[in-house]
Amino acid sequence: MNYLMNERINRLRVGVPEGNSGTLEKTRRFSFAYDHTAESDRQLSLTMPVRLPSYSRGAIHPIFEQNLPEGFVRERITERLRKHIRIDDMLFLALQRDYGIGRLQYQSSHFPANAVGKENLSEILQWQGKKSLFDELVDKYLLQTSISGVQPKILVGDVRATFNTPGLIIKSGLKEYPGLAVNEYFCMTAAKNCGLHVPDFHLSDNHSLFVMHRFDLRENGSKLGVEDFSVLLGERTNDKYTGSYESLANVIKMYCASPQKTWNCFLDC
User: Fold this and answer.
1) What confidence tier does 266 reach under pLDDT thresholds 50, 70, 90?
2) Are strands 55-57 and 30-34 parallel, antiparallel or unpaired?
3) CB-side neighbour CA atoms (13 Å) of 135
4) What is the C-alpha to C-alpha distance for residues 44 and 31, in angstroms, rounded to an integer?
5) Alpha carbon distance 220, 162 (integer Å)
6) How many CB atoms lie within 10 A of CB 33?
7) pLDDT one-digit tens code per residue, 94-127
8) What is the pLDDT of residues 23-49, one digit of tens each?
9) Which of 53, 114, 154, 189 is surrounded by the most beta carbons within 10 Å?
């Protein structure tokens, strides 16, 4: 890591697997500008087609806010880095590098891309030690975990994977959320039994950890684009649990190639 005391990250290069897309800057406002050479395959969001004028907002753009950490992860990263660098949304984006959920990649001199730390999944699931394995994983992999959600979780690479992306999401309830791992496991089992397509998931032998393979990764390590309804509605994360089915139907009609089929799938959920 390369940073100075109280230094602020004001500029990030943003791209997708096909290459660089443009630059995100933070002054009084957040502004993203596509490179003049950017083609349509460098588009970051369905809501932000490639164009010459920049996209400027007082608050961070929803597509960038989507993966910002909350709760446990945000608090732990803040605690670890607050004496070294200014803590804000640009920092959390820089930490994502190309590890985050979805196709977006962030480049910063402060946090260059590194080889992802990897663990043996079987050993994680069979752990019976006296010390907390989750605490150990957090200590090792916190700075490769910029992921949304309030509950305690960490991104870890799988030793069987040939690609440099942390492919496992590991959750623990700790003392704050007793029984969380078991609850997550049964919720995913119910979803699977209802016919929904779900990634592989596991419950550790001691019931303390829920492990899920990332839903945005193909077997070869390539990524699927991910945008939730709050992004497509242009809303902030704090508003993602408000709204109506009518607004969701309008989003499906606007952005989906087969609106009726997609709507039927949505209702089946």
Assistant:
1) confident
2) antiparallel
3) 6
4) 14
5) 8
6) 18
7) 999 999 999 999 999 888 888 788 999 999 999 9
8) 999 999 999 999 999 999 999 999 999
9) 154
By residue count, the chain amounts to 269
Dist. CA 55–CA 128, nearest whole Å: 51
Q: 């957040």: which residue's tokens?
A: 30
Closest by Cα among 192, 189, 144 to 169 = 144
pTM of the model: 0.90
Tokens at 231, concatenated: 């992004």
Question: How far is it, in rounded angstroms, from Cα 28 to Cα 232?
Answer: 24
Cα angle value 68/45/154 (rounded, 5°): 30
pLDDT in tens, 186-235: 999 999 998 889 999 999 999 999 999 999 999 888 999 999 999 999 98
Q: What 3 state SS string does 127-177 have?
A: CCCCCCHHHHHHHHHHHHCCCCCCCCEEEEEECCCCCCCCCEEEEECCCCC
- For 84-108, give the secondary structure using H, E and C: CECCCHHHHHHHHCCCCCCCCEEEC
CB atoms within 10 A of CB 227: 18
Place of tokens 């989507």: 66
**CB of 171 closer than 8 Å to CB of 148:** no
Q: To which residue do tokens 């492990």 refer?
A: 211
Q: Is residue 39 a contact partner of residue 62, using CB atoms and an 8 Å limit?
A: no
Q: Count CB neighbours of 69 within 10 A.
A: 23
